[in-house]
Amino acid sequence: MKYTNYDYIKDYNVKIELSKLDSVDLEMLELIVLGWTNQQIANKVYLSSNTVRNRISEILHAFNFDNRTQLAIYVDRLHTLQDHISHQSE
To answer: Among candidates 60, 82, 78, 79, which has minimal Cα distance to 69?
Structure first.
């Protein structure tokens, strides 16, 4: 897959937004990557499913993603990149 200038800009913007998330939002991102539903996430983080839905919508908007699948793929890709970098430094 070719990496365009737009991708670099988007990566930078998403990393900035990621740094603004609290621990619950970050946990929700991890659970989205694992394919959990809003109700499953709500039970895990002790929030209502409506609150989870709203917070995920806010994250999608902040990151400029159209849906949670795009978000999950991106977060998973970040994890893969971080794992690769950490293995190179060992």
So the answer is: 60
Instruction: Look up residue 7 and give its amino acid.
Output: D
Q: How far is CA 28 from CA 2, 5, 50, 90, in A?
A: 29, 29, 13, 30
> How many domains in the chain?
1
pTM score, whole prediction:
0.74
User: Are the C-beta atoms of 72 and 33 separated by less than 8 Å?
Assistant: yes
Which CATH number covers residue 30?
A: 1.10.10.10
61-88 pLDDT tens trace: 888 889 999 989 888 887 776 665 666 6
Q: Could you tell me how far CA 17 lies from the centroid of its own chain?
A: 10
